[in-house]
Amino acid sequence: MAKTRIHGRSGQLRIIGGAWRGRKLRFTPAEGLRPTADRTRETLFNWLAPVVAGARCADLFAGTGALGLEALSRGARHCDFVEPAARTAAELEAHLRELGANDTGRCHRQTAENFLRSAQGPFDLVFIDPPFAQGHMGPACAALARRALLAPGAHIYLETGATEPLPPLPANWQIYREKIAGGVAYRLFHAEQ
Question: What pTM does this model have?
């Protein structure tokens, strides 16, 4: 998904753990494309280590697919990648083919809002990393709760600008871990039953 600035001008994404550890995937840098940084992904997946294997995931603002690909590499059973930009989605589909992950990953060329209207849950793990300060996070979180798309005990990852306030969240989402790195705040929530 388009983000707030160009990041990773090298146009390369490195998978940092799991079966595809060290694999480098090329992407076309684009205005606003902001893959989650290696250090942030490493911290996040250390937090998720007990739950990622066998998880059904959704990467709602996929962009390069950094979060969902990392989850698949570490044993997630399936990931739905949601990316409306045609070129970015095509590159993500090519990466899934290159990694032999067509049976575990599926790219949906549509907005997160449209995907969530018809998505079939439940998801064990959801990544929500939309363009900063554009109001996309709140509707995505509300749709997950309204449509009961989360499995009992699901984990939800939220990434925002460091000074950006969180939208109102469902009452049963409890903060599990959080950290700020540079201009980015990232948080992991647990959906209590």
Answer: 0.93
